[in-house]
Predict the structure of Putative glucose-6-phosphate 1-epimerase.
Amino acid sequence: MIKKLQNGFEYVEISNKAAIAKIALQGAHLFHYERSSEIPLLWLSDASKFELGTAIRGGVPICWPSFGNNNPKLPQHGFARTVMWQLGEIQELDEDTTQLRFSLEDSKESRELWDYKFLVELTIRVGKTLEMELKTTNCDNVPFTITQALHTYFNVSAIEDVTIEGLEGKKYLDALTLQHHTQVDEIRFSQEVDRVYQGVEDTIILKDANREIELKNSGSKSVVVWNPWIDKCARMSGMKPDAYKEFVCIESANAYEDKREILPNKSHTIHLSV
Ligand code: BG6
């Protein structure tokens, strides 16, 4: 099941009755998920590089142990998305569902950037629904604090068709202006959007011209909604200038006020089902 690109970049390909998926060993990065007879759920940039040390543009990058650039010692969105993870067990739970496990432990390199002992385990269930569970265990003898996200890029018919429901009434930090606001209506897109919603425990519904997608999160109370729009998209790596029309990111996060402290020998888990 492990496949290799010509440059040696490795990924796992999963296929069952309900869906197909592809997951890179670098970053345990799910970059393709497609239910039978549906268009792919996840967006993947056709300009994305697949090479060691560069994050894939699209799918579900894992931002860990830091979301964004709130820790100046770490790269943007942490280091987990650009290092090799260990592939564990692959199990057929039934004819519709395949479960994969990946893990990442601290190393000499990680301790130079972030000096803690840890174990991060990712479980992915590929089936009629997509489930992702990211568990962080503190293996050190001092507490540590993380921010993190399952940075999901959803494939949409066209950005102007998109609405996101379920965040009405929620407070958010506008990362572009650093101002705090409250969301009044459903979200629509006609400019760059980069927001961290707080206190989110409800189902989020993403609608476009083709379908309606329900996202359920647990363990995370912050949700990042992001689309770079025209100018930022033109400046971004691994993206063609028009790419902003094809995706929206709804990221299941522990970010800003929702950062989490994990005590020694304790764990924290976030779970996304879509
Ligand atoms: C989002 C951030 O989570 O990720 C954006 O809110 C950022 O500000 C985007 O531009 C992409 O980040 P990166 O590091 O993958 O280019």
Notes: Residues 55, 68, 76-77, 151, 175, 194, 224, 226, 236, 251 surround 6-O-phosphono-beta-D-glucopyranose (CB under 6 Å).
